[in-house]
Structures are given as structure tokens and as C-alpha cells.
Amino acid sequence: MEPHGPRESPPWEGSSLPGVWPSSALGQAFSQILHQFAGQESRRGKARSAALEDLAALLEAKECDRLFEGSDASLRGMPEMLGQVAKALGKYAAPAEEPEGRGDRHSEVAEKAAAVALLFLQLLRKVEAAKNSLVCPAWKTSLRPLAGPIYVFAVTHSLEQPWTSPRSQEVAGQVLALLLQVTECSSVAGFLHGENEDEKGRFTVIMGLLKPDLNKDSWKNNPATKYVFSWTLQKVTRPWLSQHLERILPPSLLISDDYQTENKILGVHCLHHIVLNVPAADLLQYNRAQVLYHALFNHLYAREHHLIQAVLLCLLDLFPILEKALHWKGDGARPTTQCDEVLQLILTHMEPEHRLLLRRTYARNLPAFVKRLGILTARHLKRLERVIIGYLEVYDGPEEEARLKILETLKLVLQYTWPRVSCRLVVLLKALLKLICDVARDSSLTPESVKSALLEEATNCLILLDRCASGRVKGLLAKIPHSCEDSQVGNCIRRVQQLSEGAPCDAT
């Protein structure tokens, strides 16, 4: 074997750390490479580059064909040695926290990752060759310490991130694909939780590798850790996730509690995945569901629409779990729920809100809250009335998402709370007629399909309103078609008169 660089001999010709690692020449060679990765700070750059060259040469050597032979007593402890080497390689290629948001070192990280990925491919091909050989039955045992560090590296660099390049993403993706092939897993999910009931997955190992970088003092040192954790978490679903709840809940709460909006959203997505894939009984134990609720509720005071959207979706899936702990005996008023608290806060924020993106986000989720509460929406009618009328008056852009969702909300409110609607007849009737007239006269860039949808929904609300008011709307609109010059407005009113039957609407 030819030495690389100006060194006098290859690293495996010397001795290093005797008694700790295997005493074979291969063991000494890998030990020396580990020593180079852990060298003094002043020499670390050159030493690590040299270590990469030495490792590449070592993996090409014929002696390495025996790495995964379980019969050679001199190679005992070699799997653990390879695991340490894999961890050192992953750390070498890991992105570091960038001061002041600078990305000058990202290209350097991508180059390192590409070089390390090629080494991992070499190593995995050795495992693949051993697996296909009848004389190497111990390849699974040898692969076990390698699989976790290689997976973390592959996920870190295969996703599109500031520290990756097309080249590094490509080779890291090849590493992940080969890792799944070697471990005989059909998917990443199978790799993590096991391909069958008898097989123990590697999710616990992966969480163990990530844990040192997922505490409150260290989780920002490596910007990739949170993405690896989130991506890995999303791959594990029911029924496998519940057994790992103690490992995944604290990091998810930690990430969601950050001051940066990006991290808050990432953490909320992790919490949402936990809510969807952990049984309610496990979440209710030790008041975990309440902890989740309060962590999410605090985010509702934020002004970032992406965060509000993520939080509201998570809360809507958390409410059924929280309500399992409530016991209503039917002998009094139903207790207010967390859904009531959230809806009250949302309506408070909606009234004065002027930012269109936030208005759309609130309006988009309002129908789901009304469906969730059903007839109990009557508790919030006064404020809902003000929000509905206020939002129907304001143009929302060409797509008119907010006004369409508010009309959907109004329809649900009329269906669920129809006995309380008649006293609000005049106010709601005026708002709907004003909307119909505004849309009919609209000369902006709003597409005709959107205008038609608005008119259709407003007409349906008028029909429901008439049924809730025992036909009074039809009487109030009787003279309008004769004096109305706009054909669209006239068509809407004639449709109300034709379809209204004067019967109270059913609260379904």
C-alpha cells in the first residue's frame, strides 16, 4: 500500500491506543485514523484531511475484505471501532452554527459531505459483499454500530438545506438508499421501526445519537440536528411511536419554544405528529395533553400567519383528546372547553386584524371551530356576528378566500344556532345584501368563477336565514326584484324567494 502525502508510512504500520481497540493491524490503523480526527485544534484541519485520505486507502486494501468476518478473533471489537469512525466522519462533515447568519462555510461543508459520503459508500459496499458471501455470517452484528451514524449523516445532507449542494445531496441520497438495501429495509419507516413485529427498529438508536445535541444548551450548535429529528419523527407513526414518547416530546417542546419563527413552526409540526400518532390515553397520562395545549396556546399571540396556521391545525386535533378528560353529567350547563378558550381568543384577534394574510388564516380555520363546538357556538354569537359582518365588508383580493370562508362559517352558524338567529335577522340580512351588491358591481381583477362562488354562497346563506326566520326574509325581499336594475342581484333574490320554504332550519 502506497502512503499518501509526505508521511513516511501508512497509519496502520504504527501503534495507537493499545489495549483499547483490536490489536490487529486493521484495528491499529483505524485507531490511528480516529486519533487524527481528534487531534489538537491547531492541526485538526490538516489532520482530518489526511485521515480521510488514509481511510480511503485503507478501505481499498485487501485486508479490509475481512472486516465483517466474525470468525477472526483478532478482529473482535472491530464493529465498535467502525461505529466510532462513522461518528467521527459524521461530525467532520456536520454543519456548524453560522455567526451572524453568514453562509461562507456552507460550500466547505458540502464538499466535506461529498467526500465522506464516498467513504460511506465504500464501507457499505463491503458490508453488501459480506452479506452475499456464505463465509461472512456476522455481517448483521458488524453493521449494527454503523447503521445509526450513517443514517444521521445521510439525512443531514440529503435534504435541501443551506449547507448542502446538488452534489452532496445526490451522494448522501445514494448512501441512504444503499443503507436501506444493505439492512434489507424497504423504506426509511421500516428501517426505523422494523420491517415486521419481531424486528426491533433503529429509532431508539437514532434518538440516542441525537440526544446530546437536543438539550437546551446544545441544540443550536448543529443546525442540522433539528431537521434530522423532525424528518425522522415524521417517518414513525402508529402504533410504534407511543413507546418513544418520553424521548420525542421534550425535544419537540424545546424546538417549538424558540424565539425564531422557523423553529417554532418546526416544533409545532413535531407536536402535531405526536398528537396524531400517540394514543389519547398516553397523552392524558401525567397531564401531557395539558402541557401540549398550553405550549400551543401561547403561540396564538404571535403575528406570523404560517405559525398560526400550524398551531390551529394542531389544536383542532388535540381538542378531542382533551375533551376525553371532561365528564358532563347532564344536570347543568356544559363546562367551557379549551376549544371555547381558543375560539374566544381567535375572535378577539380577528376583529381588529388588518393584515390580509392573518385575516385569511383566521377565516380559513373558523369553520372547523364552529363544527367542533356545534350548538355550543351560541356562547360566542355576539362576537361571531361582529366578525362575520366586518369580514364580509372587506375586499380580500382576487381569490376572496377570507370572505368565502366567512360565508361558510355563517352557514354553519345558521345551522347550529338557528333558534338564536331571528333576533339578528336584520343585521345579517343587510350584510349579505351589501355583499351581493358589492360583488355584482365589482370591476376589479376578481375572476368570474370567484364572483360566482361568492354570489352562490351568499344566496345559500339568505335561504338558510329565511328558514331560520320562518320566511320573514322572503317577505322583506318581495319588492326588490321589481326595482333592482342589476340582473345578478335580481337573480339571487328570485332564487331565495323560489327555494325558501318558510320552515325552520334543522340544527344539523
TrEMBL record:
Location of the region described as Disordered in the Swiss-Prot/TrEMBL record: 1-20
InterPro entries linked to this entry: ARM-type_fold, Tti2
Pfam families per the UniProt record, alphabetical: Tti2 (PF10521)
A GO-annotated cellular component: TTT Hsp90 cochaperone complex
Source species, domain of life: Eukaryota
Family, as annotated: Belongs to the TTI2 family.
Name of the featured protein: TELO2 interacting protein 2
Gene that encodes it: TTI2
